[in-house]
């Protein structure tokens, strides 16, 4: 069974999210661990940063933002297609964590490369889809990827 757009349907309520997973891998959108032993309490975050990270963390990588994005369908040259709003938001989420900031430059380099923020056509279809559509008011909504640029990601540091 196939869908009409970007996402391939594998059956009833089964979605092939491999494109999104590849984007997360390319952006290194995770925090590496040294081990699984108890490290004690984590770093303290301000309530504002906690709320902002919570809003970003609500993304379930459903693909709605990719489905409506006209840039996702462009892949010229092959392998350089736009990563999409979900992956960019996940990179921001990791960069807003004190431990994740240790690898922020790697994520930023990937975001500035092929398929990163420069590949966004600014159609803003993603703003009305997925996670943003469920927010009750603007304060709870994570910033869409149009607000994320190299300077913004580099200067957003946890207090």
What report would you give on this structure?
This protein is mainly α and 159 residues long. It has a single domain, classed as Alpha-helical ferredoxin (Fumarate Reductase Iron-sulfur Protein, Chain B, domain 2), CATH 1.10.1060. Helix content is 35%, strand content 3%. It contains 7 helices and 2 strands. A two-stranded antiparallel sheet has the order 1-2. Helix 1 runs parallel beside helix 4 (85-95) and helix 4 runs antiparallel to helix 5. The longest helix is centred in the N-terminal third of the chain and has 11 residues, at 47-57. 29% of the residues are buried.
Cα end-to-end separation: 48 Å
**Overall tally of structural domains:** 1
The Cα radius of gyration reads: 16 Å
Net shape: globular
What CATH first level would be assigned? Answer: Mainly Alpha
Main sheet: strand order: 1-2
Write the CATH fold name: Fumarate Reductase Iron-sulfur Protein, Chain B, domain 2
The proportion of strand residues reads under 5%
Low-confidence stretches: 132-159
Element-by-element helix/strand order: EEHHHHHHH
What is the annotated CATH architecture? Orthogonal Bundle
Strand tally is 2
The main β sheet shows up as: 2 strands, antiparallel
Number of helices: 7
The mean pLDDT is 75
Secondary-structure class = mainly alpha
